[in-house]
Design brief:
By secondary structure, this protein is mainly α. Helix content is 68%, strand content 0%. It has two helices and no strands.
Length: 104
């Protein structure tokens, strides 16, 4: 009922590289064989490489500080608006008690 399927013959890994020596990799970019040459981009980038980490630290620190100050300010504004609304509600409740007390 169940038969084993025939397994294909697998070449050892040492034959894979010698069997197809003319195959090219799948990349479309050219490989720079002369790595000792420096491009103008690398020269320009190397000048600013030392400033990337300090700039990132200062930038992220500034964003964090801004967010802390913003959230603190927002919290204080919300507390202030709650306080004024609670005072209004207390004044209206007092006025309502006076009105209902005078009607009795």
């Amino acid at each position: 009922m169940f038969r084993r399927l025939p397994t294909p013959h697998v070449l050892p890994s040492r034959f894979l590289f010698t069997a197809f020596p003319s195959r090219r990799p799948f990349t479309t970019t050219r490989i720079n064989l002369n790595a000792n040459e420096s491009s103008s981009f690398r020269e320009g980038a190397s000048r600013y490489k030392a400033f990337v980490s300090p700039f990132a630290k200062v930038f992220l620190g500034a964003i964090f500080t801004y967010q802390v100050i913003y959230w603190t300010w927002l919290k204080l504004e919300m507390d202030e608006s709650k306080y004024t609304k609670n005072q209004e509600v207390a004044a209206l409740e007092k006025q309502a008690k006076e009105l209902t007390g005078s009607q009795k």
